Amino acid sequence: MSRLQVVSGKGGTGKTTVAAALALALATEGKRTLLVEVEGRQGIAQLFETEALPYEERKIAVAPGGGEVYALAIDAERALLDYLQMFYKLGGAGRALKKLGAIDFATTIAPGVRDVLLTGKACEAVRRREKHGGHTYDHVVMDAPPTGRITRFLNVNDEVAGLARIGPIHNQAQAVMRVLKSPETAVHLVTLLEEMPVQETADGIAELRAAELPVGRVVVNMVRPHVLDEAAVRAASGDHRDAIARSLASVGVPGGTRLVEPLLDQAAEHARRVELEREQRAVLDGIGVPAYELPFLGDGGDIAGLYRLAKELRKQGVGA
Amino acid sequence: MTEKVLDATGLDAPRPDTTGLDAVPVLELDPLIDDRGTRIIVCCGAGGVGKTTTAAALGVRAAERGRRVVVLTIDPARRLAQSMGIDSLDNTPRKVDGIKGSDGGELHAMMLDMKRTFDEIVEAHADPERARAILENPFYQSLSAGFAGTQEYMAMEKLGQLRARDEWDLIVVDTPPSRSALDFLDAPKRLGSFLDGKFIKLLMAPAKVGGRAGMKFLNVGMSMMTGTLGKLLGGQFLKDVQTFVAAMDTMFGGFRTRADATYRLLQAPGTAFLVVATPERDALREAAYFVERLAAEEMPLAGLVLNRVHGSGAAGLSAERARAAAENLDEGRMTDQGGGKTGRSGSPATSPEPSDLATAAVVSSVPEAAPTAEPAAQHPDVDADDIAVRDDIDVRVDTDAPADTDVRHLTAGLLRLHAERMRVLAREQRTRDRFTALHPEVAVAEVAALPGDVHDLAGLRAIGDRLTAGRMPSA
Fold first, then answer.
1. Which residue has the higher pLDDT, A309 or B229?
2. Mean predicted confidence (pLDDT) in A48-63
3. Cβ–Cβ gap B228/A12 under 8 Å
4. Would you call B49 an interface residue with chain A, using a CB distance cutoff of 8 Å?
5. What is the span of the domain harbouring residue A253?
């Protein structure tokens, strides 16, 4: 599997949860993964029920089989100062620049610089090696910006390389771009079986492909079981209300046809959803990108749920 | 109607605890959009909660109640544009056809094109030569196409422009799908602090003061900074930035003035903020954050729109009881109809009492009522993925005397579905209780979940009806 796993998705599809589950799944069997977040939302800390993550790689979970998940909330400003210090010994100048508002300018106003720093930091973690020569992290999983912005976010280095035509930023941007466009990287898009997220996923994949960024998987999240299908519901709403009422009464549920009515309404809604999901599945099939499927977790992404999703991903081939 | 059903069932299952919720004031949206004093409605909230759809639905409803409305959307799904009968929205408000306004109400809709908006500002506020220099500057081109914050800032600019034109008496705007909820409110200040900052003065210094003696100190800073930045970014980039800043110089004051004016407009009594969320943990956490932030900024919050709320017409039947009854049906275990026994007390392995069996046979009028260990094996369940066999199944099930096991099976399915629905209700309730505990003062409008997406004006009208229906009876 690619060493940099980028997880994007429309808002509300659960991309942070999927990214965390993927990091856990990839860490199973003694591997070490780094889970990074780039949007300053502290979503990872909330998910793992820990205090806010500092700008520091720290272990947040242990995977089955002794693997470890580290997490890092990348902060653009700190990344820039680090970067100045690490590569140019410009720590002092960095402080002066900060006083002048130049750091603020670079990380919030200047086009792309912020995104270059964020992707640059993630790529640095991908490439980093230990003294004995092995990679520090087997995999880096990024909880990335949403589908609507992902191509621009990843591609910003190209743009910056064009703006800053010479110098270290130019070189850095190009180096990052080489990693992002290589098979070392896979960009996954999380979706639900609903019209708008599926449409955005299709658009997002087209954009990624046009930018020559490596599309990984579609992750169909929050898949709910189908209890009844439309045929059964149509049958039920026929002349069988009395029979259903008797059936209910036979197991001690009174209420007669007046209870049957709302139950059938719910069934009709359910059938409509099953039908819509079938349509959306067909649309996803048409995109031709392999998919992972994750079940709906009743009470949201608590830690036990994350482990369950990670197990599910392993079952579907993650880390194999 | 649903309350009646509950009572009629005579079930003693405890109702979901709604004591906390009863205290929550209901957000009445019709009075808000009917009030001619309401000039701007801002919909904000986390991504994926239906902000844009809410904005569009409110726009349609307000127009059909006689307002002259413009909806400013930031990033609508194509379908939403289509639902308003427009193939593509662009940077100019377009009239939406098919509005059934009674008192001359009209709906216009537009989508923010941030680059176009930025270009228009440059063209409007600089002489042609200077405008061309700016528009051709590589730094400007990149900036206008979408640096972090441009979209938020341009949304504010556009809002200010629409308000100034005074062609509409109500502007409904949805906020950009931001990195975080705060960006929209922060953008003007951030731009302002940048424009007022030392950094920009330094960037402009060479153009303004040249080598004047009094500016010696600044120039030391300047040369150190340009040296560093030049080293990092390459000299050309910095030159592009400096050229851009010099060309924009005269316009900066205007940006700041307008940003401040729009900010004050948002605080004015004619503005109403709607925080949009779904009854999910993350969305409501973001909503709580937004409520606090709006209060801190003294922005007028009208209330919370809670989308995709589930209800049930049979809320008196608990999940546990429905599930137990479904299990009994699957096992073919019958209980006395009038006795109210649910069969839960008996172990599933126990054979049914003969008297129970007899009752069941009478009730269902089907002789073949003997319990079977695996009813599904004898009457294969309808396969959700197999459309081809559906017609056969219809014929089979639609016969006048359906096999008792089929009905039992169907009933068990209905009960399982209901149990699942009740679990959803309970979960949504818990999530909402958390929000209510933090912000009991925030009025809430609940919008019942729709099974599908919105495709046309009728769909938006349906959302509008749900938006203004008040509290759902069973939630």
1. A309
2. 90
3. no
4. yes
5. 225-287
Chain B residue with the nearest C-alpha to that of A280: B452
Interface subset of B 292-351, CB within 8 angstroms of A: 312-314, 317, 321-322, 325, 328-329, 333-337, 339-343
pLDDT value at residue B204: 65
* ipTM > 0.90, yes or no: no
Residues A219 and A231 in one domain: no
Report percent pLDDT > 90 for chain A. 47
Contacts of residue B56, Cβ cutoff 8 Å, sequence gap at least 6 = B71, B73, B76, B80, B83, B84, B109, B172, B460
Q: Contact at 8 Å (CB) between B60 and B464? A: yes
A276 and A307: one domain?
A: no
CB B237 to CB A165 under 8 A? yes
User: How large is the average pLDDT for residues A9-24?
Assistant: 93
Query: Is A111's CB within 8 Å of B8's CB?
Result: no
From A16-20, A86-90, A231-235, B158-162, the region with the lowest mean pLDDT:
A86-90
Do A131 and A189 fall within a single domain?
Answer: yes
Query: Do A151 and A204 fall into the same domain?
Result: yes
Interchain pair A163, B198: CB under 8 A = no
Rounded average pLDDT over B218-229: 59
Residues in chain A within 8 Å Cβ distance of B228: 90, 93, 97
Q: How many CB atoms lie within 10 A of CB A159?
A: 21
Contacts of A167 in chain B (CB under 8 A): 230-235, 237
C-alpha distances in Å from residue B88, one per residue of A10, B84, B144? 21, 10, 21
pTM of the entire predicted model: 0.80
User: Does the CB of B11 have a partner CB in chain A at under 8 Å?
Assistant: yes
Same-domain status, A178 and A306: yes
Cβ of B9 within 8 Å of Cβ of A102? The answer is no
Residues A300 and A279 in one domain: no
Is A320 within a domain?
no
Which amino acid would we find at residue B466? R
Whether A55 and A77 map to the same domain: the answer is yes
Give residue A62's pLDDT band: very low, low, confident or very high (50, 70, 90).
Answer: very high
Is A199 in the same domain as A237?
no
Query: Longest C-alpha distance within chain A, in Å?
Result: 83
Nearest to A196 among B77, B329, B394 (CB): B77
Domains of chain B, each with CATH number or no CATH: 39-269 (3.40.50), 319-422 (no CATH)
